[in-house]
Design goal:
Length: 280
């Protein structure tokens, strides 16, 4: 009688898509089983499965860069050279804050990954900054590149803390870009005063994947912005960009559907949601 046991599985790495790495512990025959999570099927239930010892880019750091400034990116993934890096000099692209960055792989192929570009002051977080009592000081305006470290038995879930100086009545906008860059981070941010008391918090932006928070300091002084994963997770692919800026009139457009069915030669009305901010 042949007995089979499951040695690895995944069903939700990229949202509802799966990604799995497996290193056989001994030589032999293995079977890959793929199914719909809800045991459904049909003509629209198609998939593309890649299997092999192929190079795979999991994430890079920093996940963005300042326009015109040479930047060294650390490449993280599987079947990549040790300490793999890529030198880039981000260029401005009209109307774009996130671009598709081409990344050459060892087998000669090229993959692309989302990469944020920004014109202004940027910095990378450094440790230790896990406690509001030992924050990483920053000056405003700025964009911070950071990453929430993996949770371990010897360490509490990672929280990155940054201190800044606020002026009474002068509004500031804190925005996290993570999911839009392929990060697995579910961002949660909060503002603390010098005594460590929480003054404001946000973990969503009107059901959008990333987080935005407006905060008006009640008095002149030092404050701390803290960012963590909503579910207290972490890892190499939990990177983020935290923007701290004074507000500027702006708007965002979105559509409620992610797919539309239009008959050949037909037409369809597409509702567009406009979200205005900062007096636009």
């Amino acid at each position: 009688m042949l007995f089979r046991s499951e040695v690895a599985f995944n069903d939700d790495y990229y949202g509802s898509d799966s990604f799995l790495t497996f290193t056989p512990q001994k030589e032999g025959d293995y079977t890959i089983s793929l199914r719909d999570l809800r045991f459904q099927g049909g003509g629209t239930h198609f998939y593309w499965l890649t299997v092999g010892a192929v190079p795979y880019l999991k994430s890079l750091f920093p996940p963005g860069g300042a326009i015109g400034k040479p930047t060294t990116l650390s490449l993280l993934g599987f079947n990549l050279p040790p300490n793999a890096t890529l030198q880039v000099t981000p260029m401005a692209v009209e109307g774009k804050e996130i671009v598709a960055l081409p990344v050459p792989l060892p087998d000669g192929t090229i993959t692309t990954t989302p990469f944020a570009i920004h014109e202004g002051y940027e910095l990378n977080e450094y440790e230790p900054n896990d406690s509001p009592k030992s924050p990483h000081p920053v000056r405003i305006p700025c964009v911070i590149n950071g990453r929430i470290s993996p949770v371990s038995k010897s360490k509490q879930p990672d929280r990155d803390n940054f201190s800044f100086t606020g002026e009474q009545g002068k509004k500031l906008v804190f925005e996290v870009i993570a999911k839009r860059l392929g990060s697995r981070l579910e961002p949660h941010i909060s503002i603390l005063n010098a005594e460590g008391n929480e003054l404001a918090v946000s973990d969503d932006q009107n059901t959008q994947p990333d987080t935005r928070l407006e905060f008006t300091p009640p008095a002149n002084g030092n404050y701390v912005v803290q960012i963590r994963d909503l579910f207290l997770k972490g890892g190499d692919d939990y990177a983020y960009r935290l923007s701290i800026q004074e507000p500027a009139p702006a708007f965002r457009l979105s559509i409620p559907q992610d797919a539309l069915n239009v008959a050949q030669g037909g037409r369809i009305a597409i509702p567009v949601n406009v979200t205005r901010s900062n007096g636009f």
